[in-house]
Amino acid sequence: MKKTFLCFSLSFALLASALSPSFSADVFAKAKLAKTKITLTVGQKKKITIKGKKKKAKYTFKASNKKVSVNKKGVVTAKKAGKTKITVKEKLKKKTKKIGVVTIIIKSKVSNKKSIASAQPAATNSGNTSEKPTTAPTASATPTLPPTPTGSPKPTATPRPKENPDYSDLPSGFMNKNEANSGTLEEFYYDSTEVSEGETVKRHARVALPKGYTESKKYPVIYMQHGIFGNEYSLTGDNTQYVAWNAMANDDMKDAIVVFANVCANKEGKGTGFSLEHYKAYDNFINDLTKCLIPAINKKYSTLTGRENTAVCGFSMGGRVSLQIGFERPDLFGYIGAFCPAPGLLPYTMNGVTEPGFYTDSTFTLPSEYLNDTYVQITKGFKDDVVKQHPLLYHQALQKTNTPHVYYETMGGDPSGSGSGNHEKAVYQHGFYNFMKNIFKPNVTVPAGALRKDGVKGTTEEFEYESTAVAKGKTVTRKALVGLPDGYNPKKKYPVVYGLHGYGWGIYNLAQDGATDVVWNGYANDVMEEVIMVFPNICANESGQGAGYNQETYDAYDNCVNDIVNCLMPAINKHYSVKTGRLNTAVWGFSMGGREALNAGFKHPDKFGYIGAFCPAPGVLPYSAEKGIFTEDTFTLPDAYKENTLVMIVKGKNDTTVGNNPILYHKALEKNNVPHIYYETMGGDAVNRGGGGHQNVVYLHGLYNLTGFPMQINLYTGQKYHHVKKQSPCLKSKRLFFSLLNNQQV
């Protein structure tokens, strides 16, 4: 039996939506069209986006007339002015069904004799990087500043914001090189299939690794985009990597990888001037980034994956692109930063050329499941005469759609040189610095002190064990993450708590999200006995990975019960000094892990005396896609275990991912007279409760209550146990659990 010690001290919990990395809204949803109406100008192209696409399915696109052409990938090319409809169908396992219809409105092409100086800046550097240069390319000529745009909405007057400590000047010297703080800047080449139809093109990026980068540690990633006419050398030529490294050294942010890509996603990697064709190359970067660059970065470097570990941001045209990418793919990016963003997200007209925009001021928003789980920041130079009012218009549109975000205006710079407030590096680096300070951390505080850095810390280590449950006729080596209390003593025996992750996650995610901190800080409060935490991979097939949203994958997750009970638990009990028996063993989980915690606990009540299901996914009971693990009548415990098992189900009040499934489980248990605790929460604490979505602050709230923190905070909206009809047995079970963790006799 091998064991590899990581022994790292976990930092603040990451901001988790948990949607994308854990359990996608599309897991159990049907494929659907992202937009049912698209407006194009003759000659313009636009890809039809399908949400919830199934990997093994094929999708077809058929136009009602020849005013447009549409290829196999759903890319529509407008040919003649008028109107057409495109029918989208899905073919899976010889069955074909209609997904929906997209109405395409084609407008006549507008003359473009004048240059479209569309409020884009001159980037600091340009150049073709098909070959690795020895020095940064020279700066291109600065274009003439554009005239005031016409036809754009007029923003309301906004006074300069008051000084805000959360959006402060860069500390002195942060814009300059500091060898003591500096990491490594690497050249990175990758293959792209998205910049030239039918061929693979070698593309180039620059990767800023933090000081002390090591493969033994995993890092979140920031994708930083340059302005128009720039390339991957533009922002690093401005010393932006030093701003990041200095911030990391100053503990303003956690160590992260910063990727500077070429945002002009055409074959040449550069534009031809202010033109719609040029802008389309930037708009295409979303495909290059998500399909080619991100997978290549994750393969090459030691990265933390998932939206809660991934940020996208940019300056000027890069700010426009970052908003486009972040709002179209919130499943991939939990943090979106736009510094002096260029026009194009909303409709505008300039120099006789019109862009229809990606959104209107009434549609510029995020899907409801991401609203409270995404950090969005827009920064505007106070005197920006290049992009002018467009950052403000974006801010006002987000206000109109009630999309949470941060907006501020600045003169830019640091105390030694405040900057002019124009379209300049002092402004965008000011925005970048404040963006970094607010990402890769929770958007709310989980109960006071639960995640504090000065609490008692334990260690985590990888644990290998042999499993005969994941592949028929084979023995497979699998891994789990084990959290040991500070000062773990083999001569002392400890209760064991099994934590089960969400859909698509792995053994590290719950710990990285703060689950270990919640428990370890409990020791500091003297409210619970020290425990051993075990975080297994609950996708229990030979590969340890799912193959899409299908029955085969769901069966692999359900099989984790056999792997845990028959293989992992005996190995843990043999290797570590544990207290055995159901009254010394708990199982809990988030999302898909919540489903499997109920699966394990209700199938093996002889093994687990404590069951916690936080935002549990569908599948415990029958639903449209699955027959269910139990029926409403069989979802119960044997009489011998009803009164001495703690069952807790927690739902986020605004959880649109798992929907009403936690409520259905609660009602089924009520029907079967199974004592349990059910409550709904916004997450967080009484001061800053969180968004109530499918996110870490909700499940950590549940873990907080399951593992025995004191009840001095009003956690249940005025009631100690919310929506529990049979309170006495629940309270008895709760006391039982507290007694166990406080090392008292039952």
Keywords:
single chain, 746 residues, alpha/beta, Rossmann fold, Immunoglobulin-like, 3 domains, nine-stranded mixed β-sheet, eight-stranded mixed β-sheet, 17 helices, 28 strands, 21% strand, globular, disordered N terminus, disordered C terminus
What does this structure look like?
The protein is an alpha/beta fold and 746 residues long. It has 3 domains: 3-16 and 446-741, Rossmann fold; 32-107, Immunoglobulin-like (Sandwich); 180-437, Alpha/Beta hydrolase fold, catalytic domain (Rossmann fold, 3-Layer(aba) Sandwich), CATH 3.40.50.1820. Helices cover 23% and strands 21% of the residues. It is built from 17 helices and 28 strands. It has a 9-stranded mixed beta sheet, with helices on both faces. The chain has an 8-stranded mixed beta sheet with strand order 11-12-14-13-15-16-19-20, with helices on both faces. Helix 7 (390-400) links the parallel strand 19 and strand 20 (406-410). The longest helix has 16 residues, at 285-300. Mean pLDDT is 79; it is low at 1-29, 110-166, 442-454 and 709-746.
